[in-house]
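Dig into this one:

. . .
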Amino acid sequence: MDARDPSPARSPGLDGAPRRRFSLFVVGEVRIEARASLPDARFGELTADRLSYAPARALVAGTAVNLARCAVGYFRKVSVLGKVGDDAFTPVIRRELRRLGVRDRLRVEEGAPNGVTVMVRDRPDGEGPGVRLLVAAEDAPGRRLTESEVRAASAGIRRADALFVDGYALLSPVSRAALRAAARVAREAGTLVAFDLVPHDIDGRLPAADVLPALSLADVVFTEAPTVARLLGVAPPTGSGGMRDLLPALDRAAPGRPLWLLRFGATSLEYVLAYQRERLLLEYPSGYGAGMERAGFGDRLASSELYWWLSRR
């Protein structure tokens, strides 16, 4: 990589590209989410019931929608495949995708409720944005997206420039098989496979043996450095120098030449190290800093990075 090239966070930047290019096919969760922030309390201070009047809103979310909402500022065409329920929220979800300009490839599970997530962040302290509590309905339809439903959408995956999937699908054996099927369809067609290694505590939820096959199918892996370090059983890196100690473990974990985009820093989001087997390509600031909204920043950054790397593919 030419050191004179600007970083993705600078060009195209975090607010969209001046000219939208490429097509992106996103497979992931689609949910209804309630978000709130507590301006007057830290979770550790709560010892009794509390009513707080604070900023709160409901929105269509989930990993697929959150990514697509940012990606439409970069990509000429964005499609979302996910499994949703069959209740009063379903038309709300479809309207939101239309409003965003996203192609709806949703599968509906008749008679099932839509998945709901509640996200609450407590009062920020002097050193960080506060603690996030995320409560997600466990039995959401997205966990039952099947391999056959993915294969029914295979033409769209083949036509896309990139497929974007994430680790939440690995939490269920059914959606895990669907994720792998989508990645195999993409690879056979020459469609780039981008994988987001979430949730950030995936190492505590799954053995590495359930995650590594997905990493092996990916061309690009987005991850917070501490997450992948814990998953691979190596010491979490500290600082830029420690990041380089992680690289041999990445080479052992995934065959081939995936591009690793490793987030690191005080909150694991301030900097990015781009690495591809035995080649340190680039290190750059993400653009994240004090006072910035953390929710959604990772999706903005990933959209910019994926567009940037596709442009140089």
The chain is about 35% helix and 25% strand. The mean pLDDT is 93.
